[in-house]
């Protein structure tokens, strides 16, 4: 397999493009030039670090090190889910709901794929386990973040509609069912779009990487199909579980809307309602 090695000069040419984009953003006052530079710096540092870590993991294969790496990846993904929401759940649930859903969906599907489909020996071989889990977590994280942000924002903006439905005798599930369906749809749209456009509009990253590394195109396509099916299932199951847990948290046992369980200042009318609910 002939791989064209990239030098520091090659990467510097690509970095000049990022600098040019940041300069153009500043010139037309987009206000994202600094964010582009910080994100590019984070990408460089994080990917260099993971390269060294993976090199060590590949040289010393051990289930404990692979599990530690997987938990660090899960912790970082959970933090990103919370940071991308305007009004996350208050307290530990803001972090725990998304993280636990990602743990159940991503880890379960990754272990299933390693043991029943790919079958490396041993099953936790980091060359297969870490990239697969990374793709699962990354896509599930995006779906969960989009869906949860939509849920809390919609509940906040449509609180009067939800309250009226509750007063008409609806249960908490019935009162928020329309919002919940829209949130699930929002979380799954990116993966549905990715599957619909794959091969026709876009060539997914994993397949492209394998072809650039010298793998036969048909073998690269097989792996890409497998990965897209797995990450779509993981995103879907994770999003459904997260929205179910988060929407349940927006109400109490007496089916009363509890927006005080979200971060952020409540409007005056909602503050009075929440005070009465807590009482």
TrEMBL record:
InterPro entries: UPF0014_fam. Keywords: Membrane, Transmembrane, Transmembrane helix. It is a multi-pass membrane protein. One of its GO terms (cellular component) is plasma membrane. Coiled coil: none annotated. The keyword Transmembrane helix applies. It is found in: Membrane. PANTHER family: PROTEIN ALUMINUM SENSITIVE 3, UPF0014 INNER MEMBRANE PROTEIN YBBM-RELATED. Belongs to the UPF0014 family. This is Iron export ABC transporter permease subunit FetB. The gene is fetB.
